Amino acid sequence: MIIAQLSDPHLVAEGTIQQRIDPRIKLSTAIDSLLKVDPLPDVVLLTGDLAQLGKPEGYAKVRELLAHLPMPVYAIPGNQDDRQNMRDAFIQDGYLPEDSEFLHYVIEDHELRLIGMDSTRPGGPGGGGLLCQERLSWLEERLSEAPDRPTLIFMHHPPFRTGLGKLDKEPMPGGDAMADIVAQHPQVKKVLAGHIHRYTERVWAGTAAATAPAIAFQVTLTFDRGASATWHEEPAPILFHLWHDEEEIITHSLAVGDYEGPFEIVRQRGAK
């Protein structure tokens, strides 16, 4: 099973520039790059901040661009998203709950069981996430339902520390409690997030964990928690997570955009 992860496209209204870039072009280019991968992914996970300020026109553009993908796409909200506007835009796809407060769900249709977690906290400081007791209980119940099924959890806010400067200044409320739950369920093979606009990888709660780069723009790499958050114009890799009925998920990255190649690798005579 091949899972592509896109995160933080921050789509805006037609003709609007965000952080000196056009997020629509960024997402369109990412989708074009994804469609060149052979074989194509089985599913795409979209880990939050779909539409800047949660505007309906942003979701309309996201849907227009995602329509080019032939495989299922599963989206989860981020701090920029509006739950109701996102629900209205994606409810026709059949995986979002129709009437619950939180937009989390379980997908049972693939080799890996997919659990999408809603970690958003509307009005929270700095766009930070929250895992309240209701959400934690929901997760524990879902994991307890299928202890023998390999499972992947995806969400917007990382419940773990990433070491990335100011964005990692405070731990996510509820993150330690989620770690306790995940540690008791060895069927969880990986936890995926977005939000921090950079790729990170670590071991957490006895499993693998990662954050995806942003499609829109990348936050400057700094480990100084007192530094101001700035951004860089640099390639935005798509993450690909491979599951082959093994004990772990293997992650690869692909830089978005067109580059020269492919070229045949020619070995010199005598080289091993």
Q: Summed up, what is this model?
A:
This protein has 272 residues and is an alpha/beta fold. The protein has five helices and 13 strands. It has one domain (2-254): Purple Acid Phosphatase, chain A, domain 2.
Describe, in plain words, how this protein is organized in 3D.
This protein has one domain: Purple Acid Phosphatase, chain A, domain 2 (4-Layer Sandwich), CATH 3.60.21. It is 19% helix and 20% strand.
Number of strands: 13
Just give the CATH class.
Answer: Alpha Beta
**What Rg, in angstroms, do the CA atoms define?**
18 Å
CATH architecture: 4-Layer Sandwich
Helical fraction equals 10-25%
Report the uncertain regions. Answer: none
What is the count of distinct domains?
1
Q: Give the CATH topology.
A: Purple Acid Phosphatase, chain A, domain 2
Strand ordering within the main sheet: 4-5-6-7-9-8
| Rough outline | globular
So, the CATH homologous superfamily?
Metallo-dependent phosphatases
Mean pLDDT: 91
SS summary, helix count: 5
Sheet-strand content, in percent, reads 15-25%
- What is the helix/strand order? EHEHEHEEHEHEEEEEEE
Distance from first to last alpha carbon: 32 Å
Q: What class do helices, strands and sheet pairing give? A: alpha/beta
Main sheet: strands, sense, barrel: 6 strands, mixed
